[in-house]
Amino acid sequence: MKAVDAVAFIPYARLLGVRLEETASGLICVMPFRSDLVGNVVLPAVHGGVVGAFLELTALLQLVEIAGEERVARPINFSIDYLRSAGPRDTHGRAEIVKHGRRIANVRVVAWQDDPDKPVAAGIGNFLL
Amino acid sequence: MTDAARTFAMEAMFGTGRDEMVAHVPHAVRLGIKVVELGRCFATLRLPWSDDLVGDPVRGVVFGGVITTLLDQASGIAVQCALPEFMTIATLDLRIDYLRAAEPGHDLVARAECYKLTNTVAFVRGSAWDRDSGDPFASMLATFMLVGPLRPDAWQQAIARGEQALAGRSES
Fold first, then answer.
1. Among B30, B56, B135, B161, which lies 20 to 30 A Cα-Cα from A76?
2. H or E stretch at B93
3. What is the ipTM of this complex?
4. Is A41–B25 a contact, with Cβ atoms under 8 angstroms apart?
5. Which domain holds residue B63?
6. Which domain CATH number covers B79?
């Protein structure tokens, strides 16, 4: 299974509206802005939980892409740093597998909107393979 | 200051079923998140089961990020429940441990408690469960920045917009 198949296969990825872009520098996840993803209508800003879920999904899809596994990896823990407010714009994410062991993978993720050098959030997590 | 002597911005809203606290949050409305109970420094929320929430179709288990959303939402409300006046708050960081898989088909319940406030930061801990609060499937630690006072009219406008969103949802 490739990541692009997994997106279609995972109901929550469809709910978030996430799609994949294959670039020369690797896989990029894109979450197009939708008004029902908003958490703060005053700013407005994408819900912090949605940003966190997007990071975790980006990590998971990178694992699927690399390993081509039939089963989706199970998260053991996930830690999110919120760096900037995520405005009403598309959000992009890229994951880097820090370590892919026999049973555990450690994955680092970063998400940005207009400028990759101005991330809105960063995440790191351990997954059971 | 003793707990009894402290003032709480949301004291009038403490109790069960105060859904106006989530009705102004479009994504909480989209997921159908409901308030179970609010009290001093804590919030308990329920997310009704839906097949849309699944992250592992083979096992039928809810996606971990959904639990993040529910706990983040509960945490934000818990912080407001601990403050003497409404403030604009922003999640600084949030860490979740997934203790076990949530049972497919069960509503998700999350409780968050703001256990420490400084002038600029709120510290929150929480957990989430399906059947029994004593057998959680996730535990969480989070910190929030206290950004500044929230203008009451901004809050009222946000709640009014949430009510419109709820009305629109019930019509569809």
1. B30
2. strand B87-98
3. 0.93
4. yes
5. 3-171
6. 3.10.129.10
